[in-house]
Amino acid sequence: GEDVEQSLFLSVREGDSSVINCTYTDSSSTYLYWYKQEPGAGLQLLTYIFSNMDMKQDQRLTVLLNKKDKHLSLRIADTQTGDSAIYFCAEAYSSASKIIFGSGTRLSIRP
Amino acid sequence: NAGVMQNPRHLVRRRGQEARLRCSPMKGHSHVYWYRQLPEEGLKFMVYLQKENIIDESGMPKERFSAEFPKEGPSILRIQQVVRGDSAAYFCASSPELAGENEQYFGPGTRLTVT
């Protein structure tokens, strides 16, 4: 089956690292994504990782994939107030298929 | 190169009316996807279209909903006889013909409110 799960809320202090976790069930997923949604806006693709990779780093963002446990995480270093948003974990089977989204993790930043 | 355009951005309909949501993909993109986001939830896939063809409609409700992507013009998501439960944000995404990395570019969404 297709299911992506993530915790609903995360609160971190400004300047700390944020780690958002996600689990998925479809072992045939090839593409794993992190999207960001700000209030009233559409989705912005932050980063993605192929299932044959363990890690991907892009500036302040680090994605870790544990394929055995079907666990994906997004680490945001030096979290800023502008990082406040909902972060969606998502998976897709192939390069032209539907994307399956989690319910989103709402990240809030404390001063 | 303009991004994915959706209109209207906000749409209010009374129960029983029809809602028409439009999506213009990015230039050069021939694949369109529609997703629905209910309040406080993630996006759920509805339908995937290429020009003049429906490729995957597994997420589309069997009744009242239809989608098209004609040879000319935008993709249309049509909801007949709307009910309160149809209130949601509807997002369109597009990708190019050879999307090797499956990057779907999302539009800003249409927020449908059924009163």
Low-confidence stretches of chain B: none
Quickly give the structural class of chain A: mainly beta
Largest sheet of chain B: 7 strands, mixed
Largest beta-sheet details of chain A: 6 strands, mixed
Q: What is the mean predicted local confidence, pLDDT of chain A?
A: 91
In percent, how helical is the residue content of chain B? under 10%
Radius of gyration from the alpha-carbon trace of chain B, in angstroms: 13 Å
Query: What's the β-strand tally of chain A?
Result: 11
| Class from secondary-structure proportions of chain B | mainly beta
The number of distinct helices of chain A, counting runs of at least 4 residues, comes to: 0
Strand content of chain B: over 45%
β-strand number of chain B: 11
User: Which ranges of chain A are low-confidence, i.e. pLDDT below 50, for 5 or more consecutive residues?
Assistant: none
Number of helices of chain B: 0
What is the approximate shape of chain A?
A: globular
Polypeptide structure, described:
The complex is a heterodimer of chains A (111) and B (115). Chain A is built from no helices and eleven strands. In chain A, strands 2, 4, 5, 9, 10 and 11 form a six-stranded mixed β-sheet that branches. Chain A is mainly beta and 111 residues long. The mean pLDDT of chain A is 91. In chain A, strand 9 (85-92) and strand 10 form a beta hairpin. The radius of gyration of chain A is 13 Å and the shape is globular. Chain A has strands spanning 4-6, 9-13, 18-24, 31-37, 43-50, 55-58, 61-66, 71-76, 85-92, 99-101, 105-110. Helix content of chain B is 0%, strand content 51%. In chain B, the strands form two sheets. In chain B, strands 2, 4, 5, 6, 9, 10 and 11 form a seven-stranded mixed β-sheet that branches. In chain B, strands 1-3-8-7 form a four-stranded antiparallel β-sheet, with no helix packed on it. In chain B, strand 5 (43-50) and strand 6 form a beta hairpin. The relative contact order of chain B is 0.34. Chain B is mainly beta and 115 residues long. Chain B starts with a strand and ends with a strand. Chain B has strands at residues 5-7, 10-13, 19-24, 29-37, 43-50, 53-56, 65-68, 75-79, 88-96, 105-106, 110-114. The mean pLDDT of chain B is 91. Chain B has no helices and eleven strands. The interface between A and B is medium-sized, with 22 and 26 residues.
